[in-house]
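REQUEST ID: PR-0412
SUBMITTED BY: lab tech R.K.
PRIORITY: routine
TASK: structure prediction, single protein chain
INPUT:
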Amino acid sequence: MNAASTTPTQTTRPARATLDIDGRALSYLDFGGAGRPLLALHGHLSEGASFTALAAALGPAWRVIAPDQRGHGDSDRAPEYTRAGYVADLRALVDHLELDRFAVLGHSLGAVNAIHLAAELPERVDALIDLDTAAHIPAADVSPLSFVLALPYTAGTREELVAALGPVAPMLGGGPRPLPQGGWRLPFHPQDTVTSENAVHGDHWRQWLATDCPALLLAGTSSQVLTAEHAADMTARRPHTTYAALDADHFLQLRDPEGVHDAVRSFLAAL
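STATUS: complete
OUTPUT:
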C-alpha cells in the first residue's frame, strides 16, 4: 500500500489524499490539526465531505478524518461490499495514518462499520458514536434503496445527473464527478449501493457488545431505522453507553446538524 498526501492545517479546509489498497483507490479527507483523531464514517448515498461542518464544530480539539468508503465519492468501486471488506479498508487507513488510539463515529452504513471496526480493534478505539443505527437491522423483501436502480450512473453533463437525482441530491455532498474520458458519473453506483445495503441487514449485537469504551447512541425520534425500544435495549445492554435523541428522522445531519454537533461535542468533551 502507498499513499500521496499532504498535511492540512485548518479544520475547515481538509486535505484530500488517496490510499492505494491493492490497486484500488481509497480517498479520504483529513481536516488536520493537533487534536485527538476522530474517524467519521458516512452512510449510503453520502461521502466523507458530509462531515465538513462537524469537523469545524469539533476543531481544534479533534482531528476529523473522513474517508469516502469503498464505492462512494472519489473512492474506487470494489468487487464486494461485505463487512470484512469495509473494515479491512478502514484498518488499512488507520494503520497508514499511524493512529494508535482514535474515536470512531458513523451514520447508518458507517455506524455498522464503526461498530465492527471497534470490535476488531478494542485496544485502539477510545470512543464509539452511533448515529441512529440499530444493532439488528431486519432483512427487507425489497431494499429501501432500490429506487436508485432507476438512476443513470453516467450522463453527458452534470446538470443531467443532478436533475435525475431529484430529492436525493441534497444527500450527496460533493455531488457528481467528472469522468476522465468526458461526461459525469454519480458518486455511487446504483447496483453497488443496493448490494451494499442488503449486506448491512442482519444481527450486529455481538459486535455492539464486544467493547465497553464510552459510546454515544444518538437517535432520531422519528427514525425509520432505530425504534425507541431498540435504542433503550442497546443502551441498557452495553456498559458506558449514553443515549440522546433529536427531533429528527434517520438523516440526523440533514435534519438537525446543530443538534448533532452539540451532542457529539458534549460527549467527546466528557471523555
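NOTES: The mean pLDDT is 93.
REVIEWED BY: pending
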